[in-house]
Write a structure and sequence with these properties.
A hairpin with a 7-residue loop joins strand 3 and strand 4. By secondary structure, the protein is of the alpha+beta class. The N terminus is likely disordered. The two termini are 26 Å apart.
């Protein structure tokens, strides 16, 4: 899927989305109207959840994106959409109209079917005299396709204040089939040092606040370009709601009902700003976002939700999971990272006939990581070490069918890692894990990373002093992973360079360092 990719210029990707707003206010009546007024497509366009014959298209009308309503009133607005086989829209294959309503913050999504597999399409939205930027997307290969390779980027942790999104500028320019985002798309709080820009507003706790935070992040032109260039798969981690939350408990809210109301608002705003299907629309504080995405016979992506259902932290009661500790409870067999229902779903998926490669896309470092220096043992309870039995069940399931060639991709820890995933310290690896750094969020010190590598020899590579993302290329012969780092995240135009390359061969799990 990576040969003969047409070039999509950044100028055409962004189109008019960032053009200066003209004076005047939209004229709307209570019945649906087409748009009249300032440019409403300030948040760009996106596509996601690719299937062999379908894709989800997204945009949101927001002429004043940093207002809770996006600058819209309560009236619905009709938005036309077009899908074409060419960038100039000479060969339009589908078109239609969708209604943007205040109930969903005037966001719209189009769930297309009947498309050809493994091919590019271009799309755009129009309302009145306003036209969106042009986006490009790509469908997945047919399920019986055995030859088409796959190449995708994975990323996480993009604290808006701590740096610019040069990594996304590089992602937009890559030849990719997909971008997988592993969580912390927004940050609810301000933290870190040497901020280069500021959040709009304080810590969000309600729907207007979370809508504004998502919109603020989406005003970034490089993030818009990456969305417009490739289809995305997205899951969430904690900062989309509150740091270190588990199920219905948050260190910031001792009252479960209060927190669940906040979680409902956060999930709703996330849904309104992501290219995901209507079936993922939250019902209060709950929704189902995990699922399987197949790319021919080359790749299965099992996209997981590691926050909504997980057991509460072990060893710590209603406190931050940051202190390093240990206790017998973290080993309890009933503890679950994904929750019982999602664990059962994953186990069922892993019993199906495998593709050449299986990628489990989830939130945080899965490999065991004893973090205390010296002879003492200390674990971070918000990671997989707080759910050791659940990790053991998953690794057992992966070991049961070596044909699956399992790979785990992770985020959250703001560092690059390549690890051998083992069931026992002395055993051989059963899977290979790659942690793709962070887009901007500050990482651990070199001394902390050095201590992790020294105490945990199955962590084969680690680096936390740079920001960036990872590229994964898969074909019948090998998986290749490149760690891509931004030279200086404080500069919007900073170059991105490869700092390490790894390979995994079919039937031989474990990290192989190809070059650095």
């Amino acid at each position: 899927m990576t040969t003969s990719f047409p070039t999509l210029s950044r100028r055409r990707i962004l189109g008019g989305a960032l053009a200066a707003a003209s004076l005047g206010q939209p004229f709307l009546q209570l019945h649906a109207q087409t748009w009249r007024g300032r440019d409403p497509f300030t948040l760009g366009v996106a596509s996601g959840c690719p299937r062999p014959g379908g894709i989800v298209l997204w945009t949101r009308l927001a002429p004043d994106p940093l207002q809770p309503t996006g600058g819209m009133d309560d009236a619905p607005v009709d938005v036309a959409w077009e899908l074409a086989e060419d960038e100039r829209f000479h060969r339009i294959v589908q078109r239609g109209t969708v209604r943007a309503t205040a109930e969903l913050a005037h966001s719209v999504r189009v769930e297309l079917q009947g498309l050809a597999p493994a091919r590019f399409y271009w799309y755009r939205f129009t309302s009145g005299d306003a036209r969106s930027p042009v986006g490009r997307t790509r469908t997945a290969p047919a399920e019986d396709d055995t030859a088409t390779p796959a190449r995708f980027a994975f990323a996480s942790c993009q604290q808006f204040e701590q740096g610019f999104y040069a990594a996304y500028r590089d992602i937009a320019a890559q030849s990719l089939d997909l971008v997988v985002h592993l969580g912390d798309y927004i940050y609810e709080s301000s933290w870190g040092s040497r901020h280069v820009r500021k959040h709009a507003g304080g810590i969000p706790t309600d729907l207007p606040g979370f809508r504004t935070r998502h919109a603020h992040y989406k005003t970034d032109p490089d993030l818009q370009a990456a969305h417009a260039a490739h289809p995305w798969l997205v899951t969430w981690d904690d900062h989309e709601v509150a740091n270190d939350y588990t199920d219905d408990v948050s260190p910031r809210s001792v009252d479960a009902d209060e927190f669940l109301a906040m979680r409902a608002a956060a999930y709703q705003a996330w849904f309104e700003h992501m290219p995901v299907p209507m079936r993922m629309r939250p019902r209060g504080p709950s929704t189902t976002i995990y699922g399987r995405y197949r790319f021919g016979q080359m790749l299965d992506v099992l996209l997981m939700d590691g926050r909504q259902y997980r057991s509460h932290h072990a060893c710590l009661i209603k406190r931050s999971a940051s202190p390093l500790t240990d206790c017998a409870d973290r080993l309890a067999p009933e503890r679950s990272f994904f929750g019982k229902a999602q664990e059962a779903w994953l186990a069922q998926e892993l019993q199906l006939p495998p593709t050449r490669w299986t990628v489990i896309a989830q939130q945080t470092l899965m490999a065991e990581a004893d973090r205390k220096s010296g002879p003492e043992h200390g674990y971070w309870m918000d990671g997989w070490d707080g759910y050791a039995a659940a990790r053991g069940r998953l690794l057992d399931a992966l070991a049961a069918d070596p044909r699956r060639n399992p790979l785990v991709i992770s985020g959250d820890v703001h560092a690059f890692f390549a690890t051998d995933l083992k069931r026992t310290p002395d055993g051989g690896p059963v899977a290979t894990e790659f942690v793709g750094g962070s887009i901007t969020s500050e990482g651990p010190s070199p001394s902390k990373v050095a201590n992790l590598l020294a105490k945990n020899p199955h962590l084969r590579y680690g680096r936390g002093d740079v920001r960036g993302y990872a590229l994964m290329s898969l074909d019948a012969r090998a998986c290749t992973v490149d760690f891509m780092a931004v030279d200086d995240v404080k500069l919007a135009t900073s170059p991105v360079t490869r700092i390490a390359r790894f390979t995994v061969e079919p039937g031989a799990p474990g990290v192989q360092v190809a070059s650095t």
